[in-house]
Amino acid sequence: VYVTDILILFLFFVWCFRNFKFEYRISNLLKPNVAFILVLLYLIVNIFLSSNLLGGFYFLLKYLELSFLGYYIAKIVKTKRQVVIGISLFAVSMVGQSLLALAQYAAHGSLGGIFYFIGERFFTGQTPGIANASVNGALLLRPYATFPHPNVLAGYLVLFLCSMLFLLSEMKRQFLKLLIVFSLLLGTWTLFLTLSRAAIVLWLVVLVVFVSRVIKSKLVKKKDSR
Question: pLDDT category, 78, cuts 50, 70, 90?
């Protein structure tokens, strides 16, 4: 159990207190969430068929926790200002994760201390099963940050790098633009250190598409101005 789990649980109780209605019908609760319930039933069946029952229930709780968080964010984020605030917070989060990953890469292992309470696992370059990579004959530790695997960190980075890249033009304040640009540069550097080939290729494709759109937009504006 990490601090983030406690915060999400607290958020869940606050949300329930503000939205609970005694006369709420079960049919109204189930109709909009048929797909979610089917997935949930599928997961429960697989848990009982698995060899690790407790592990299955743990990941089911994590699935429910993160599903609630996604639902909550989707419900409260409605205005452009809220989107900008959300992206700015994600930029700060990505800067933190990137700096932690860079520190792990330099230290050839986890940092420990307070970072344990935000999800960092303990590992060194010699930990059994740890993700190392051989580059030009040198064994390099792929950074984890607070994620269970460098590939998961790479997926997180690509997701929010794409979000911030395409919303960069929406940022009006100079400070926010500088924050987004800094997080894009730092996140890209960290992404390459993860050595996750699929994520790196995907990010390069997104960059090519983004640059092509910018060039095309400028050419259209230039043509219209003549």
Answer: confident
Kindly report the pTM of this predicted structure: 0.73
Question: Are 151 and 194 spatial neighbours (Cβ–Cβ below 8 Å)?
Answer: yes
**Whether 115 contacts 101, CB under 8 Å:** no
Give the pLDDT band of residue 188 (cuts 50, 70, 90): very high
Cβ density class 57-74: b for 16+ within 10 Å, e for less = eeeeeeeeeeeeeeeeee
Residue 106 has a CB neighbour count (10 Å cut-off) of: 11
The tens digit of pLDDT for each residue in 190-212 reads: 999 999 999 999 999 999 998 89
Between CA 64 and CA 4 the distance in angstroms is 14
Place of tokens 């960059």: 207
191 touches 157 (CB < 8 A) = yes
Beta bridge partners of 141: 132
Going by C-alpha positions, the residue among 152, 146, 141, 140 that lies closest to residue 112 is 146
Using an 8 Å Cβ cutoff, are 122 and 137 in contact? no
